[in-house]
Amino acid sequence: MTSASATLVGSGAILLWSLLALFTAASGDVPPFQLAAMTFAIGGLLGCASWLVRPSGLKALVQPWPVWLLGVGGLFGYHALYFTALRLAPPAEAGLLNYLWPLLIVLFSAGLPGEAGLRRGHVVGALLGLSGVAALFAGRGDLQFPAGALPGYAASFACAFVWAGYSVLSRRFGAVPTDAVAGFCLATAALSLACHLALERTVWPAGAGQWAALVALGLGPVGAAFYLWDVGMKRGDIRLLGVCSYAAPVLSTLILVATGYADATPALGLACLLIVAGAVVAARAAVTPAASGASPAGPSRTPRR
Predict the structure, then answer these.
(1) Greatest C-alpha distance within the chain
(2) Tell me: the pLDDT tens digits for 17-70?
(3) Element spanning 58, H or E
(4) Contacts with 77 (C-beta within 8 Å, 6 or more apart), sequence order
(5) Is-contact 218 65, C-beta < 8 A?
(6) Residues 182 and 69 sit within 8 Å (Cβ to Cβ)
(7) Relative orientation angle of helices 247-258 and 266-287, to the nearest 10 degrees
(8) Considering the entire predicted model, what is its pTM?
(9) How far is CA 264 from CA 165, 250, 275, in A?
């Protein structure tokens, strides 16, 4: 697989994550950790399904403990911190802090061995994307940061670092097959179930529509998306994917508007313009040779893993 193809595959995860809010809203009042346990179980089984015709994939679960620590720590750690942030802080502010992770991916990627280094266009593009997300959240109401919500903000800030760290460090474990993500999902489902039993009251989806939304959530945004993201992070243009990740909340809002769950606002239009501009700037940086004469950091020149 070429780097350009892997980048395209990784962008599929961003598209699937844009459906996260819609499917979550349509799944009813299932508590967060119960929802995570159910959907990660579906996502893990989705990865295992291919082993029926490809038994060799099962061998991917035999990995050293640092690989499991990164995989389970990334998936479960991120979601546990994010759920905590939503409990302790206003959702809009928590969501805005959480969306520092694409910018952090762009910045952290500069430390990866064999990469061409960070360019100004990557940073400018990421900052434009972050500005777009800020405009989107600000358009939903006045952003306020009450002091009492400080623990929630800290959790949201931490989860941005966890997801960025998981994504970038996946590159260092490029030899680990994507099949291993199925094991990470199943382990995350087990840990989420333990948290649910300790902290929440069980609420099942009501009716076929909510069950269908929950299954779709497990197959897509909390299932296939993680396999696609793993391919993109290990073999694609990690900086371009980081910048393009800012499209997820905007696409998500557009989908909510189209399905009647949200209203269109001027802030949504501004967010779209800023994020598209950021993606264009980052894409130009990815294909334009650096002034120092270093080879491009574009998809076609990224080392294979």
Answers:
(1) 61
(2) 988 888 988 898 999 999 999 999 999 999 999 899 999 989 999 999 999 999
(3) none
(4) 159, 162, 166
(5) no
(6) no
(7) 140
(8) 0.84
(9) 34, 11, 17
Distance CA 32, CA 6 (A): 31
* Alpha carbon distance 271, 116 (integer Å): 30
Per residue in 138-163, pLDDT (tens digit) is 776 666 667 777 888 889 889 989 99
Residue that is written with structure tokens 């403990």 in the block = 65
Positive or negative torsion for Cα 13, 17, 19, 20? positive
Q: Which residues contact 44 (CB under 8 A, 6 or more apart)?
A: 182, 183, 184, 185, 186, 188, 189, 223
Whether residue 136 contacts residue 246, with contact meaning beta carbons closer than 8 Å, is answered with: no
How far apart (Å, rounded) are the C-alpha atoms in residues 180 and 67?
A: 9
What residues contact residue 136 under an 8 Å CB cut-off, 6+ apart? 249, 250, 253, 267, 268, 271
One-letter identity of residue 170:
S
Contacts of 25 (CB under 8 A, 6+ apart): 256, 261
CA nearest neighbour of 105 among 139, 78, 137, 69: 78
- The C-alpha atoms of residue 108 and residue 141 are separated, in whole angstroms, by 32
